[in-house]
Amino acid sequence: MPQPSSPALRPGPxxxxxxxxxxxxxxxxxxxxxxxxxxxxxPRDHLDFxxxxxxxxxxxxxxxxxRMEYLLELTxxxxxxxxxxxxxxxxxxxxxxxEKSVLEMP
Length: 106
Description:
The chain is mostly beta strands. The protein is 0% helix and 42% strand. It contains no helices and nine strands.
């Protein structure tokens, strides 16, 4: 029987009382970087993920909102970037410039 994945290996965001943790698995570190793209006023200098043991991870203070829309900016080894929805989060919102991932705060 498959074992549940540990929190560090679970993709998508995890909301806690004071923090939100965003995760993106990348076991072989094929990406050079991951950055959170959002428009709710989180400090821009604290939006870069850190790669550890096969997972890109970002811990931010829980914003004072009920809901946030976001994207992930993926940086390839050659420096090119692509902006995508969070593959670990199935919630989406349509917009004028395409879909965004949605995180609802409990």
